[in-house]
Automatic annotation (TrEMBL), chain A:
PROSITE patterns found in the cross-reference section: ABC_TRANSPORTER_2
Protein name listed in UniProt: ATP-binding cassette domain-containing protein
Keywords on record: ATP-binding, Nucleotide-binding, Transport
Domain ABC transporter, chain residue ranges per copy: 8-233
Automatic annotation (TrEMBL), chain B:
Residue ranges of the TM segments: 20-40, 60-85, 106-129, 149-171, 183-205, 234-257
Lineage: superkingdom: Bacteria
Designated name of the protein: ABC transporter permease subunit
Keywords: Membrane, Transmembrane, Transmembrane helix
Length: 314, 265
């Protein structure tokens, strides 16, 4: 790995397949050393965009560069960028080791690197089995092993969690975290925010080939998730919260859900509990609604408004 | 480029297919030619000139030309299996200059085709001379000429392997590509001959060029007899070789140029 600056830059990328516009005027950047989630519903254009970044698909217009270079102009591409696409990209009659040795030869990496990766990805025991009999989890590991042969600093992973069981998913998350902690730039696509929410730093959200949102996940989600409050004094509590926010905090938005239940936006659970106690109001339950990120994602990808439009409409 | 060729050889040798293919070559070369020589072309149905004539030797050895579909299919699979099993995802990731990948395949499979041709004609030579000696026939062709004929057949096998690679690159779908390649070699050219006037073109088609390279006129003669047209005049062996090389060059160019801009989705 070199210390070169390796940011992924997508600018005004458009791809048409005949009458279908898969990606339209898409621009975003992926910063070095971060895990960026590339999100969008099925058919949004994630795979097409990632394939344009590595030159598998020729853009109709626009450019995609890694460290300022088009993929084909990178001197030793497999030592700079690794990518994983389908759940199976191996010859069924090759063993995992055969497969890796072919690509090690292609990239000019020693056989010892193959053995190392088989160990790192927990495939040592299955190394000499034909890939035909591999489970989804093993295929994903072998895909990752192939992408990592050249110890690349940039990784593009297209829905690597597809078909993994919860255990496999949690292994994948910690493995990717480990890779990112080594300073790698990772772009990981998913159609479900929940799948990657725990590991991504940034997100790029697209829908119908266009950018809907991008930036820090925490900023997109807003300051605090809403809190569901159950209280027999709901009406009084609502007024109290709005009239007496803590020092330096804007007045919260309080939404009655049903008698005895409120949804509070803009305050966190401890702040609500403190205020209620100070005003001697009873609170029977406080639940922070973390699902809101998923909701945000759904809003972003299903409504017709972009974030800016939504912002100005408020 | 050296790395790419090394990788292609690794890919080729990783499965048993190469062994099976060479066994097939030995079976077709040694087995087929041995059997035909033992039986003797004069006992074929319909009878053909015996081995004591030059035409007899040529018709027996020329049969090897019909096995060209094997190396052609191997060459085709070299490209189509990459698309079928999607290894092309990794291949073009590791080697984004696609022409280099296809050039490496052409080189690798050119060598493989040569090995196929050598095993095919080598075993054929052993079986042929063995059977001739066993039957005590005096050959109608000098030994040196027989060997030259076999060498020309080996060259044709290299050409067909490379043609296969080109066709695989043009038609990425494995089944479709195999159907086109084998179908054309087996039946397509014959069917074309049915069209009046096409027989004038036959010498310039791959099959006709191969026939002139390998001095194998049986098909052309049978064809003109059946259609009761004027006899088809094949090109000279050298011209046939040039025409076949022309097709090989076209196929190679197609193999290298065609995948350049096609999207991998
Ligand atoms: N080769 C192709 N020919 C025609 N249309 C295509 C091709 N590849 C993709 N598309 C279309 O482009 C659009 C974007 O597809 P893409 O696969 O990039 O989406 P995606 O975000 O990866 O979806 P998913 O979550 O289902 O994987 C879709 O409408 C798809 O049908
Ligand atoms: Mg996709």
């Amino acid at each position: 790995m070199t210390g070169e600056h390796l940011r992924i830059e997508v600018s005004n990328l458009t791809k048409r397949f005949g009458a279908v516009t898969a990606v339209e005027d898409l621009s975003f950047t992926v910063e070095q050393g971060m895990i960026t989630g590339f999100l969008g519903p099925n058919g949004a254009g994630k795979t097409t965009t990632m394939r344009m970044i590595i030159g598998h698909v020729a853009p109709t217009s626009g450019t995609a560069t890694i460290g300022g270079r088009r993929y084909g102009d990178i001197p030793c591409p497999s030592a700079t960028v690794g990518a994983v696409f389908d759940a199976a990209a191996f010859h069924p009659r090759h063993s995992a080791r055969d497969h890796l040795l072919v690509y090690a030869a292609m990239g000019g990496y020693p056989a010892s690197r193959v053995a190392e990766l088989l160990g790192l990805l927990g495939l040592a025991g299955a190394a000499d089995r034909k890939t035909r009999g591999f489970s989804t989890g093993m295929r994903q590991r072998l895909n990752l092993a192939t992408a990592l042969l050249g110890d690349p600093r940039v990784l593009l992973l297209d829905e690597p969690g597809n078909g993994l069981d919860p255990e496999g998913m949690s292994w994948l998350r910690s493995f990717l975290r480990h890779l990112a902690d080594e300073g790698r730039t990772i772009l990981i696509s998913s159609h479900a925010l929940g799948e990657v929410q725990q590991i991504v730093d940034d997100v790029v959200v697209i829908r119908q080939g266009r950018l809907v949102a991008s930036g820090r996940l925490s900023e997109l989600a807003g300051s605090a998730p809403p809190v569901l409050v159950r209280s027999p004094d709901a009406a009084v509590l609502a007024r109290t919260l709005m009239e007496n926010p803590p020092e330096g905090v804007a007045a919260p938005r309080v939404e009655p859900v049903q008698p005895g239940e409120l949804r509070v936006h803009g305050l966190d659970a401890p702040q609500i509990a403190e205020l209620a106690a100070a005003h001697r109001l009873r609170v029977h339950g406080l639940v922070t609604e973390n699902a809101s990120l998923e909701q945000l994602f759904l809003d972003l990808t299903t409504s017709d408004l972009t974030v800016e439009e939504r912002g100005s409409a408020r | 480029m050296r790395r790419l060729i090394k990788a292609e050889f690794r890919r080729l040798l990783a499965t048993r297919m190469w062994l099976v293919t060479l066994l097939v070559a030995a079976l077709l070369g040694g087995g087929l030619i041995g059997m035909m020589t033992i039986v003797g072309p004069e006992n074929f149905d319909p009878p053909m000139p015996g081995l004591q004539t030059e035409a007899g030797v040529r018709s027996v050895l020329g049969m090897l030309g019909f096995t060209a579909f094997v190396p052609a299919a191997i060459g085709t699979l070299a490209v189509t299996s990459e698309y079928r099993y999607r290894t092309v995802n990794f291949t073009f990731l590791f080697a984004p200059h696609r022409w280099q990948v296809l050039t490496a395949k052409l080189v690798t499979y050119g060598v493989a085709g040569m090995l196929y041709g050598l095993v095919l004609t080598g075993t054929a030579a052993v079986a042929f001379f063995g059977a001739v000696a066993a039957r005590g026939v005096s050959l109608g062709m000098p030994t040196g000429t027989v060997i030259e004929l076999l060498a020309r057949i080996a060259v044709a096998m290299v050409a067909y392997t490379v043609l296969g690679v080109g066709m695989g690159a043009l038609i990425r779908n494995q089944t479709a590509a195999l159907c086109v390649v084998i179908g054309y070699l087996y039946a397509g050219e014959m069917l074309l001959m049915m069209i009046p006037g096409i027989n004038l073109v036959y010498p310039w088609l791959p099959g006709g060029a191969t026939a002139s390279l390998t001095d194998f006129t049986a098909v052309a003669d049978a064809m003109s007899q059946q259609l009761s047209t004027d006899p088809v005049h094949l090109l000279s062996p050298v011209a046939g070789a040039m025409v076949l090389m022309g097709y090989t060059a076209l196929a190679s160019a197609a193999a290298v140029l065609r995948p350049m801009r096609r999207d991998i989705t």
